[in-house]
Each structure stands twice: as structure tokens, then as C-alpha cells.
Protein 1
Amino acid sequence: MKGLLALLTFILLAALLGPALLPWPYDAIDWNAVRAAPSAAHWLGTDGVGRDLLARTLMGTRITLSVAVAAALVAMLIGTAWGAVAGWAGGRVDDLMMRTVDALYALPFMFVVILLMVVFGRSILLVFLGIGAVEWLTMARVVRGQVIQLKARPFILAAEAAGSPAHATLIRHVLPNIAGVALAYLMLTLPQVVMVESFLSFLGLGVQEPMTSLGILVKDGADDMDLMPHALLVPGAVLVTLLLCLTLLGERLRERFAA
Amino acid sequence: MLTLILRRLATAIPTLFAVILLSFLLMRFAPGGPFDGERPLDPATRAALITAYGMDQPLPVQFTRYVGNLAQGDFGPSLVYRDFTVTQLVAKGLPVSLTLGALALLLALTLGVASGLAAAMKPGGRADRSIGLIATLLTVLPSFVTAPALVLVFALGLGWLPVSGWGEGAPRHLVLPVIALALPAAGAIAKLTRAGLTEVLGQDHVRAARARGLSPLRTLTRHALRPALVPVASYVGPTAAGLLTGAVVIETIFALPGLGRYFVQGALNRDYPLVLGVVTLYAALIILFNLLADLAYGWLDPRVRG
């Protein structure tokens, strides 16, 4: 657990501070060093148009993480609101809302996201809105379950008996009690969102050049892998480490708060 | 059983219809049409093309016509591959995607159930812990990272297998794509099998079987494995869906002429009928797989029937 957190913190700090510390911006082109091997000037070498790969990897990590956090927050907001209202209202409203979630689960999501990207142009804002809008379903189910359990607890009944209006009870008494579970699922949503963003960017439908993300770097690296395998392996390793840390931490949190 | 199928179909058909309507509307409201290429078309030609494809009609008319044709298996003409109908493109791509997906599913199930079994034999043991770690690693390894890495080692490095291409479906060409596609699913199936088994192994009917003197292996295969596979069966539907999406990337990386490649090309070129056709088909397949998974569920665990 501590090791994982340390590794994740290191990646976060590197992505946050790294780009500012390097002499090369992520999009600066050095025509004297195209596909350069790693050296003292370019620690990871350069890509096909002479851009520093270390700078690009750090920037790509930053973009991937920002998109992931933003999209996961969108997913958490929609999911928590939907699940809380469904669980609190109960009866027909609950039935209708959860049926909708069931139906949405059956949609081929990746294709809906790709359609959204194709239709509304490929901006980062849309990438995370699109992903966030399709990743909220699990959150809605979990939160609903929690709210239904909480509803029968004495302190909620006491609040109701004391005349607290429904919205106040929800915000003041119910939401704080589902925060832990919501946080655990937020952590578990993060790697999924990272995966979707990289997937889209890999296909050329997500983040656009010259801006970069881990998906784009893996794609570029795969194109050049016969000449310089490290261009594929380094961003690939960063991506996998990130996904692994987030997944393992999320699973630990879930064990602690759910169950 | 029949009522289960009918009940599922009753929700499946509206879902499919919603997918078609949603993707139809999205594509029609998209800024930039299929005829807005790099070079602007002559206005008369443009108008003629739009009339020829019926895109000047009101939207409800276009949609009704599209659904009507769809019901007869006609997906309409491709706007970019001018000499082909979407039905022809789908007929070419679908066998490739299905071969790839079926082989990957088979491999994932074999690997996943076998390693899940091995892990559950001795919970907390060394094998269990290492299998657990490897399975988690596999589930987070994106196929677009594993696939190029596999190519790097086995095709470019060792030269054992071809780098890409379909090769008329020759087994050599299928090895790397199938492995890359199967690995994440194999990891998830291993975890589910292990979880299902450890739970079932503590239940009364399994302990009773052991008490009657059945060997551990026989207890496992006769009494424990079937109910333990219930969570796996419910995962197969979504897995099949995941394999289809994963296939989009795998087909792109290995230059395989499957549905996924047509989908990506269609999406990048705004080829409405092609994208619509492929999304509809994917949705139908996913719904079908979920239905099959539900049926398998009932077969594996009689308690959920009815």
C-alpha cells in the first residue's frame, strides 16, 4: 500500500513538475536530432520529428491524468446524484431510473464514445465529457444500494422525524455517509477512464497533435518500434504502472469501505 | 426458459432501436458531411449527390427508410468505398472479426478457468498469490500496449511470426492478434473463477461431498466448478463485448480486414451508413451475447431459472 502510494505520488509529481524543469518543451522540434538515441541532451532520445521524448512522456502523463480525473469526477457526480435520487425516492421512480441504467449497460459504449468524438470534433473537453457521461453507471448502482441501506437507519429516521426536509437530509446525512464508497469507486473509475482515453487517442480520435497523451505516445512508439523500441516501451510502461497502481489502490479502498 | 428468452427480447429490441436512433441522429447532426473533403465539390455535383443518397428528405423519412431497409438486411451504400454497399463490407469484415473474437474468447476461457482453478486449490498459497498478481496485471495491460510489444519480441525480434496482415486466415497470422486480444479477458476470468470457487468450496454441499469420501479433484469437478462458474458466465457477455471493442484496436495494429477497421475508417471519413451499420451490428451482437450469457447462467445454476 505504501509502496503503491509512493509510486503514484512520484508519477503525479513528475507529470506535474517535470515539464517545467526540462530545457525542452514537449512540442519543440530539434531538426538536428531526429529519432536521436538517448543521450545527455535528450535522456530518452527524440521522436520522428525531433521532439524530446522525456518531455513528451511527462506531458502525456499529465494530460492523460487530467483527462482521467476530470472524467472520473463527472462520472462520480452524475452517478452519485442518479443513484442517490433513485435510492431515496424508491418505488416507481427508482424502478424507472435503474431500468434506464440497465438498458444503458447494454449499449456498446466504446462505439458511442467514438461516435461522439466523430460528431462533435476531437477536443479534450469532449473526450472527458464523453467518457464521464458513460462511466457513471456502476457508481449509480453502488450509491443507490448504499442509500437504500442508510434510509432504514435510525439517525436518518430521526432527522426525518425532526422535520428535516428531504434535500437537507440527503445532503447533510446521507451523502457524507456514502462518501467513502463513492471515493473507492472514484479510484476504480480512474484506471478505466485512463484506458478509454488512451484507447481513443491511440486510434487518433482522442487528444490531438501537437498535444500529446500516453495513448498517442504508445501509438507513435508502435509506429517506430523497429527503429527505437524504447519509444514504445517507456510510455507503455508508464501507462501500465499508472493503471496498476490505480487499480490496486481502488481495490484496497473498496475492500475497506464496501463489503 | 422460454419466458426468460422472451423477457430478455422484450428489453433487447427497444435497446437496439434506441442505439440505431441515437447513432442515426448523432451522425446527422454532425458538423461536416461525407462530401466535405479536402477539395470543395462543385455545388451542382454536391446537390446531385445529396439528392441521390436521399439526404435532402426530412429526418423522420430518412430514418424510417433506413430502418425499413435494415429490416431487410440492407445497410445502404457506403459513401466512401463507392463501389460497395455496407452490407458487402460487413459481409467481408464480419467473418474476420468473428474468427478473431471466437478464438480469443476460447483462449481466454481456457487460460482463465485453468489458472483460477490452480489458484483456488490452495487459497493464500504461493501459487494463489502469484496468479492473483499476474491476473491483475493482465487486466490492466491495454491490448494496444501488449500487441506492439508482442510484435516487437516475436515478429521483429525472433522472427517467428508475421508482423501483420491477414494472410487469408493462415494460423501463423492469427497467433499474435488472438493472444493480444485474449490476455486482458483471461486475467479477469481467472480472478472471477478463483473468487467463485473459494466461495463455493466452503459451502455445505461441497463439504458433504468431501465427507462422503470423494477425492478433492472429483469434488471440484463434479460439485464445485459448475456453481463457481456462474460469475464467469455472467462476465462472458460483457467480455464478448470487450473482445469486439478490443478487436477494433487489434485489427488496426495488425492490419486485419475486420469490422473494426471499417468502423475506424468510416468514423474518420464520416461514412455515415458504414458507421451506423457497424454500430448496429455490434449492438445486436452484444445484446445476443448477453442473452446467451443469461441462458448459460440458468443452465449452470438451476436456482436462478424461472
Protein 2
Amino acid sequence: MTSNYASERETTEGRVFTVTGGDWDDVVSGVDPINEGRIVVNMGPQHPSTHGVLRLVLELEGETVREARSVIGYLHTGIEKNLEYRNWVQGSTFVTRMDYLAPIFNETAYSLAVEKLLGITDEVTERANTIRVLMMELNRISSHLVWVATTGMELGAISIMLYGFREREYILEIFELITGLRMNHAYVRPGGVAQDVPDEAIVKIREFLKMMPKRLKEYEDLLSGQPIWLERTQNVAVLDVTGCVALGVTGPVLRSAGLAWDLRKTMPYCGYEDYEFDVPTHPDGDVWGRYLVRMAEMRESLKLVEQALDRLKPGPVMVADKKIAWPAQLAIGVDGMGNSLEHVAKIMGQSMESLIHHFKLVTEGFRVPPGQVYVGIESPRGELGVHAVSDGGTRPYRVHYREPSFVNLQALPAMAEGGLIADVIAGGASLDPVMGGCDR
Amino acid sequence: MTDSKPSTGGVPVPVTPAGATSGAPAEFPPAAPAGRGMFGNQGTGDVSGFGGLVRPQHTVEDSPRPYGGYFDEVRDALEEAYPAFGEAVEHVVVDRGELTLHIRPERIAEVCQVMRDDPALRFELCSSVSGVDYLGADVRRLHVVYQLTSMTYRRRVRLEAAVSVEEPHLPSVTAVYPTADWQERETYDMFGVVFDGHPALTRILMPDDWEGHPQRKDYPLGGVPVEYKGAEIPPPDKRRSYQ
């Protein structure tokens, strides 16, 4: 039964068909689906519900998944290797591109690691830390919004996708006001943040805080009582605490299994110990629980954003050390952010010393004493860890990202095998993998 | 200069400006090993004297006791629970508020087992496994670094095992920490460290037929030179830069 579309060959495990598209009836006509029905389906890497370029190889018996294997690496861009050829400040612009739904977290983790290497963790100003918390929590909401939007769409709820992206757009506008960019901000830098928060952004965030609780209620009205959503999420892709910890799964997935492990509480950083918020958990460890936990986390993040706004006291947003703080003399010009004309006039016209320093700082950057550190922060997907090594030079010797998307994806076979193929989608989506982060 | 070129029909073609290809700093790739000289250039007339600078190599030294914090407790608990401690642990380093135990590579799985199961240690979560290539600083240049987290005690510990490129073998810890599966595959992929006993040690980020291990320090970054205003700018790893 060989056709143009499906070649067949004998293997030790029986006859294997390779389907390349075309006439499905033609392919299955010679196969008895009851008795010899193990089909290998290659899902992805280009599939609407694989969150980017994730490929799943599924072995099916009827609609039951017998074996699931994830294949990753399609979005590998060698960011970690590239970092080794730029100076420490330039690292921010690379790491922000890893997990593109949570760029602020990538930057903050990197900055915390570099600061720990430099030994200036305590010198980071209070305002810088508060802005970091503010930005991270806004980013957490925007990331969870994309999660609820895409997962809703994948499970058949289209409207929630439109609403989720609408509200996320609002947060991206806030980011644009503050950092100048919707994504890839390179805003959090070693030593603080790149610029101060403008007043109009504060106004916009206040509006967002007023609007968002109502919108969250609307999402829940759309989803929480809907029979299809309940059917497709409750008792689906269950993973208990033991399974999570063994497989290294952290974040909302671990908390939805019942363990209140949140690095913001258990190993605080950026002053999280001074904020009031709860760590939502759920006992069941299914997709439904992960949905509830993420919805509750958005509410907690709103609380955190509000507290951060109240704490914003005037002050510097960068450490005092001018070497680390470079580029510090910035201003908005006609072509965007750049060195302020005042600074250029000074180094070019008045002070030779300033020119020398400027040249050294631009071409050389700062040196970081040799050693290694590991910093973990709570990203929307779990523990985002940075292992940074310095050899005493001006460039990172090695930076490794412990990406929660990468680690969490290992749990997919444990969730999918033995279940239905439709639940692979629900289980995979509930892990919230972002392939840009996973493959780096 | 113009007569040797074929006619272009009167269309001006870019000509390399005089001086752009001679003496531009960008033309001297870092041939010197890291840590020597200031700019990584070699073979050019060095009149500054900076080319002779040698940065001291970072060596691993045991930290004096007491370490402070929970580090003493962790060390003592491991020493008590693991009889072969003296033989398996090469160095104990406390730096920047972090504890690093340098473990003999063949012992790493045993140590992880004790670290996970001993009631006084309880490092239930293996946060991260990755590699670092200390080319030129260590004969056993490939270091595998394990970040362990104790959720019970809220502690972190780093284990480090060093292997050589000629004999890059150490036991896999997947039996103790199943989460190490993909991370060991990544370390194999990027550094060529072979984890014996791993269920399926294949490449994970690079294509299956890739040659070489990209994160090693002697693996080039790659890239092509680009032309900018007539001058040729080499790719980032070929540029002259501060060491």
C-alpha cells in the first residue's frame, strides 16, 4: 500500500509508515486500527498549540498517548555563548531576549548575579529595587495573561485569547513608557535600572490597577463556570508534589500541587520580604489548579504593584559608582535615547580627562572580581537561575541560565503518557513553556 | 590599481580605502590565551608594555573554618552521613555567601544521594546542572556544576566536579535527581562531558549531527566579517578586546 504520500518499511517493531501529508484514507486503508494501531505522530515544531517551536513525538494507540517525547532546540540561538564575547553591561541586551514573555525577569536575574559577583548587592538603591519589583510584577501579570489567553484558545475558548492579549497590550504600553520598548528592554542593568520611571507611567499604572480587578473577574466569569473548560482542565495532566520536585518543576505548577514554594517568600531578593502578599496554592495538581493559581497570582501581583507604587520615594536609581553606572548621562534626542548633548559637549570640548574616562568605559567597561555565583528568582514559570562565572575580566566568563521552561518541559511525558491526545495540549499548555527561554 | 580591474560599465565599485586594511586594531584577532596581555593581540609591535601583563590565574583554595551561616552544619552533616567524605571532597570553598563542594567526579552520584536523603541535609531539588570550561586554568578543565536546593531548610549548595577533555566521564545523577536528565544532556551537548548511566545521552539543543561542543572555550563563536564604511569589521570573537 505504498502511495506517493506514505512510504512504508519493515522494522523490528513491525511495519512503519512515514506520512508526509496527502490522502489520509489512502494511508490507513491497509491498517486495522484495533489490532495494529500504534501510530507515531509528529506534532510540531510548527503547530498552533505548541507555544512556539516545540516538537512532540507521540506514540498513539487510538486516542491514547502511549509515549510522548519532546524535541527541543529549534530556537537555540547561542545566547550564553554570545554573552562571553560582550562586556558585562551588554549582557542585559542579550538575556532579555531569552524568555520573551518575561524579559524583566531575565534582566533582573542577570543583574542580581553580576551585583553579587561585584559585591554591591547592598549598594543598589531602594528606589531601584522598588522599580524592579514594580516591573517584575507587571511583567508577571502580562506573562500570566498570555498564558490564560493562549491556553484558553488551545482548549477552545477564543474570546479569552482576545481579552488576555488586550490587557497585556496595556502593560506593554506601560513598559514602553518606562523603558522605551515593548519587549527586549535591557532596562534592569547591573547596579540598578537604566532610567527613572516617568510620572505619566505612574498615572497609567494607577489606572491599570483600577481596571484590572474587574477584568480578572470577567475572565473568571468567562471560564470558571464553563462546562467545556471544566471538563478539559479538571483532573487532567495531574502531577503531584513528589513528581514535581523529582522533575525539578517549580513555579505555579508546583504550587498547584499544594507546595507553597515561592522564592519571593522562601529566599527573598530585591526587598520582597518587606511586601505583603500571599502565595496561592491548590491541592489537586491538575490543569484546573494551575489555572486557579495563576489567576490568584495575578491578583497578588496587583497588590505588590500597588505597594511598590506607594514605596517609590525620590532617589537615585543606579549605584553611585560611575564605572558600573555607565551609560548614565543619557537624554532623549530626536533619534531616541542617547548620550546627552551636555555630556558630549563636555567630553569633546572641555575636559580631556572626561574624554579618556568615557573612552575607557565605552571600550573596556568594568572588571568583575573572579569567582562564581548562583542567583535564583521566581519568574512566572518557576525558578529562574543564573550561574555566572567571572575570571576577573571585562566580559562574563560563563553565564548559564537555569530556565524554568527548559526544566519544566521534562514533565510533559509524565503528564501526557496514558492520557488522551487532547490532554497533551492541556498538559503542555499548563506548563507554560516559552521556547525562546527553553532553547536560549 | 584601476587598470587591473575589469570594466564595470562606468558603475562605481567600492574600493578598499587606503589604510583601512593596515593597522586597524580590528585586524588583529586575540591570538594570546586569555589572561595574558591587555588586548589579546600578538605579533604586532607592542610599545605599550601592556602586552606583557599576566593576570593571575584563579586557583581553588579551601576556605578556613568556621565558614559561618549554615555552611558548617552542611559540611558536618555530610561528613557524618558519608564515610568517604575525606576521599570524595577535594575542596570546600565559601565565597560571596555561597558554599561550593568540589567533589571527585567518580563520587558525584553517591554524594548527591546522601545530600538528598540524609535528614540533616535534605537537598530535595536539583536546581541546575551545567558546565564551565576552565581552559588553561585547570588540567581537568571541564567542570560540571550542580546547584542543589534544600526546600526543607531553605539552603543552597553548589557541587562541582572536574573532568579532563581526554577522560570526560562521570556518573549521571539522573537516578537521584530525574530533573538532571535534560540538563546533563545539555552539558554533554555544550561541553562534551559524558554522563555514564544516563538513560539517553544525546544532543538536545544542537542538531543531532553537529560536530564539536560549542560552549568549550576553544570552540569559535563563528560569524562573518562585515563591511562598515569601507573597513572590514571582524566577527566579535576575532576582535581585539580588553582581556
